[in-house]
């Protein structure tokens, strides 16, 4: 275990992957019985709120509980071997304490740009002829229209 990835202060949050779709908050608490678990977050599918996404987060009250939870990586819950890992810490210290590993105010969000916008004018304009541009067609038309 890479101890540099462990949080130095609360929240002590674990990422839970490969969860059964019928998992409940109570079954997560039972899986981690004996550990000081303070919160469980199981995000639902946006298109079907009755179905879970298959991953979640568990927040622990202390670092020792998080370390014990990490030792349960690849253990079975229901019919699946679940992944237990340290959740990524949010960069924004002023954010919600229950960020559950999500960086809510990240400046590196890939969706910030309009990826459907045309490329910059200097990137592709000079490399290919445009439809209706006669300079390309004329070069080859002379070869065949020489009668």
From TrEMBL:
The keyword Nucleotide-binding does not apply. The keyword RNA-binding applies. SUPFAM superfamilies: RNA-binding domain, RBD (SSF54928). It comes from the Eukaryota. Residues 12-89 form the RRM domain. Keywords: RNA-binding. Pfam families: RRM_1. InterPro entries: Nucleotide-bd_a/b_plait_sf, RBD_domain_sf, RRM_dom. Residues 81-147 are annotated as: Disordered. Residues 82-119, 127-147 have a biased composition (Basic and acidic residues). SMART domains: RRM. This is RRM domain-containing protein. It comes from Rangifer tarandus platyrhynchus.
């Amino acid at each position: 275990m890479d101890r540099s990835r462990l949080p130095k202060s609360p929240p002590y949050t674990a990422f839970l992957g490969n969860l059964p779709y019928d998992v409940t908050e109570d079954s997560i608490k039972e899986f981690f019985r004996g550990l000081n678990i303070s919160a469980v977050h199981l995000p639902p599918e946006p298109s079907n709120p009755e179905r879970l996404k298959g991953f979640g987060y568990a927040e622990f009250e202390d670092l020792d509980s998080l370390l014990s939870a990490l030792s349960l990586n690849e253990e079975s819950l229901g019919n699946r071997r679940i992944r237990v890992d340290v959740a990524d810490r949010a960069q924004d210290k002023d954010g919600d304490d229950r960020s559950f590993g999500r960086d809510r105010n990240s400046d590196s969000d890939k969706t910030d740009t309009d990826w459907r916008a045309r490329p910059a004018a200097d990137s592709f304009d000079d490399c290919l002829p445009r439809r209706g541009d006669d300079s390309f067609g004329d070069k080859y038309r002379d070869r065949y229209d020489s009668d």
